[in-house]
């Protein structure tokens, strides 16, 4: 479903701020894979997701989504294959527009936007049913402006928008990091439900090792722009936080230094 | 003496229909500004040039013998092109929106002089008459009642068309672009193109108001657009402040408040002139009014929200309560 081959990206090349963000990332996702990605700060987790999303062109390598090389497709054109949820709840929705308008925008992802009316009556009914899945009572507030919602509600709505067109890949970039623990748990629960029911292929970056172990069928650890550790199936099920930390120091030759990941 | 006071007051009331007509024309212009400033979140300064372009094109074409309808359509198209230029500067060439608008404004200065010159067989002209006595114009300050009626119809059509457009799939994408670029790209919207379309639509409407203004005042003038953006912003802001309460969600009503803002602006304008203010100071006054209104939301956020302010408020309330109890005990 997704193939990354020797993907490289350097920011600010040739300046004192040069940062080799991706140093040859290779990854192959099968349809239905739900991969969690962990690693310290600056390991290249979010950069990998942004490379797939086409936020900027990559320096070298190939990105292939469902057989199509998307290297040359810009961000908005690639959007038809992708669903994206960001760390900042403000980023995924338009605050000044209604809940139903946001969903209508998302449900036209990858299609030509015409001069037909922006939302139909049939869609409103569909959206109401979809919002019920979230179990947040948003189905009764469809004409409310999204700016009135809480961070957790906005992330849940963004998840719904990201999955509404059944994307080939769902990209989740630390989408629970800005939420309080209780809300984060709820949003994760919704995430898993949507992925399962829509049979999506997903990549989820997280700082939380427990979540990385608990969710998905595959786990990737990144370090200094490379994937140093890729584990799936039965082996992943038996992972522990301690085991992961040990594995990290074995493979990278360094102590695992992110307190955030260990404490949470 | 009493007579002259009465005369002044009569003059003032006689000037009101003119103020309303001017307010309506500038209100149309302000609707164009609303599209960029409020919907796209861009402060587009090209309007100072494109209002004059619309006026110059309309006056020049009518002088050269084209019909009113054709002249006004071409004026609208010239505004679309001005917006296209700003849009390309901003998206294709990566120039910040404010600077892109200033560049277009400067380019239009030369273009406008040339357009007016063309009609007079000169290299350039700073003024071109378009009197309703010589031309079959749509509006004119000499025929106030007809002008008010025509302007009202014009506005009705413009507000209707915009209400429809911003409700469509593409119009919604345009609104989303203004609200959140990251989200819009993630949802597959070509945000660069959306900005260009928005800028074109805005400048097209502004040029149309310029064409109406030239007919109304009987000429096109190279200086007629100076500070237009400030008048447009003033109309948007005044409209929102005074009439925002009845237009919370409905888009057509929001556009109407902009229009009412324009009318209020020009009524205040003629009032302060009748109160004896030198007309020279009017631009200064409008700029100061706009500056203050723009500052209000910032000040609110800076000084009247957050923990410190809440604490102070609570403290004051507590003091008041204590005092009250004291007096009651006494």
Short synopsis of the structure:
The complex is a heterodimer of chains A (264) and B (330). With 264 residues, chain A is an alpha/beta fold.
Could you walk me through the main structural features you see in this protein, from its secondary elements to its overall organization?
With 264 residues, chain A is of the alpha/beta class. Chain A has 10 helices and 10 strands. Chain A has helices at residues 45-53, 75-78, 99-106, 121-134, 151-163, 181-198, 209-214, 233-237, 241-252, 259-263; strands at residues 2-11, 19-29, 34-39, 60-65, 68-69, 82-85, 169-173, 202-205, 218-223, 226-232. In chain A, the strands form 2 sheets. Chain A has a 6-stranded mixed beta sheet, with helices on both faces. In chain A, helix 3 runs parallel beside helix 5 and helix 5 (151-163) runs parallel beside helix 6. The longest helix of chain A has 18 residues, at 181-198. Chain A is globular, with a radius of gyration of 19 Å. Chain A starts with a strand and ends with a helix. The model of chain A has no long low-confidence stretch (mean pLDDT 92). Chain B is globular, with a radius of gyration of 23 Å. Chain B has a domain at 20-225. Chain B is built from 12 helices and 2 strands. Chain B has 330 residues and is mainly α. The mean pLDDT of chain B is 91. The A-B interface holds A 53, 75-77, 79-80, 82, 84, 86, 90-97, 101-102, 104-106, 108-111, 113-119, 143, 161-162 and B 165, 167-173, 175-176, 179-180, 182-191, 249.
């Amino acid at each position: 479903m997704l193939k990354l081959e020797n993907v490289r990206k350097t920011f600010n090349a040739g300046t004192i701020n040069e940062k080799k963000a991706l140093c040859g990332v290779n990854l192959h996702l099968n349809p239905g894979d739900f991969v969690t990605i962990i690693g310290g700060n600056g390991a290249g987790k979010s950069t990998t997701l942004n490379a797939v999303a086409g936020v900027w062109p990559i320096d070298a390598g190939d990105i292939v989504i469902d057989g199509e090389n998307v290297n040359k497709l810009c961000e908005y054109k690639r959007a038809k294959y992708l669903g994206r949820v960001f760390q900042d709840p403000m980023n995924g929705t338009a605050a000044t527009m209604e809940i139903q308008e946001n969903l209508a925008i998302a449900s036209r992802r990858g299609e030509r936007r015409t001069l037909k009316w922006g939302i139909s009556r049939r869609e409103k009914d569909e959206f109401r049913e979809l919002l019920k899945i979230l179990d947040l009572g948003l189905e009764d507030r469809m004409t409310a402006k999204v700016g009135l919602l809480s961070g957790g509600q906005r992330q849940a709505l963004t998840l719904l928008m990201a999955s509404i067109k059944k994307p080939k890949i769902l990209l989740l970039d630390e989408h629970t990091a800005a939420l309080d623990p209780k809300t984060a748990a709820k949003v994760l629960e919704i995430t898993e439900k949507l992925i399962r029911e829509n049979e999506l292929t997903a990549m989820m970056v997280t700082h939380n090792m427990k979540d990385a172990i608990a969710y998905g069928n595959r786990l990737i650890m990144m370090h200094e722009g490379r994937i140093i550790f890729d584990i799936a199936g039965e082996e992943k099920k038996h992972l522990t936080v301690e085991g992961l930390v040990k594995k990290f120091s074995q493979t990278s030759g360094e102590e695992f230094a992110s307190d955030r990941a260990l404490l949470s | 003496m009493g007579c002259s006071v009465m005369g002044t007051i009569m003059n003032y009331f006689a000037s009101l229909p003119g103020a309303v007509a001017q307010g309506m024309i500038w209100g149309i212009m302000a609707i164009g500004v609303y599209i960029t400033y409020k919907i796209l979140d861009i402060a587009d300064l090209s309007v100072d040039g494109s209002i004059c372009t619309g006026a110059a094109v309309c006056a020049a074409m009518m002088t050269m013998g084209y019909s009113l309808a054709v002249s006004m359509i071409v004026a609208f198209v010239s505004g679309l092109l001005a917006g296209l230029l700003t849009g390309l500067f901003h998206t294709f060439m990566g120039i910040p929106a404010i600077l892109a608008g200033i560049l277009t404004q400067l380019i239009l200065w030369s273009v406008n002089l040339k357009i007016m010159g063309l009609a007079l067989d000169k290299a350039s002209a700073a003024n071109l008459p378009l009197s309703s006595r010589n031309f079959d114009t749509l509006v004119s300050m000499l025929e106030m009642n007809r002008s008010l009626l025509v302007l009202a119809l014009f506005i009705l059509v413009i507000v209707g068309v915009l209400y429809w457009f911003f409700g469509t799939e593409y119009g919604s994408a345009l609104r989303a672009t203004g609200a959140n670029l990251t989200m819009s790209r993630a949802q597959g919207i070509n945000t660069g193109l959306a900005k260009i379309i928005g800028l074109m639509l805005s400048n097209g409407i502004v040029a149309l108001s310029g064409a109406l203004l030239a007919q109304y005042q009987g000429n096109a003038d190279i200086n007629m657009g100076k500070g237009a953006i400030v008048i447009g912003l003033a109309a948007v802001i005044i409209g929102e402040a005074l009439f925002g309460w009845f237009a919370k969600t409905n888009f057509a009503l929001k556009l109407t408040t902009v229009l009412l803002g324009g009318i209020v602006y020009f009524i205040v304008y003629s009032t302060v002139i009748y109160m004896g203010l030198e007309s020279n100071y009017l631009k200064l006054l409008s700029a100061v009014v706009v500056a203050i209104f723009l500052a209000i939301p910032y000040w609110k956020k800076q000084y009247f929200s957050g923990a410190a302010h809440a604490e102070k408020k609570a403290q004051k309330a507590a003091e008041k309560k204590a005092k009250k109890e004291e007096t009651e005990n006494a």
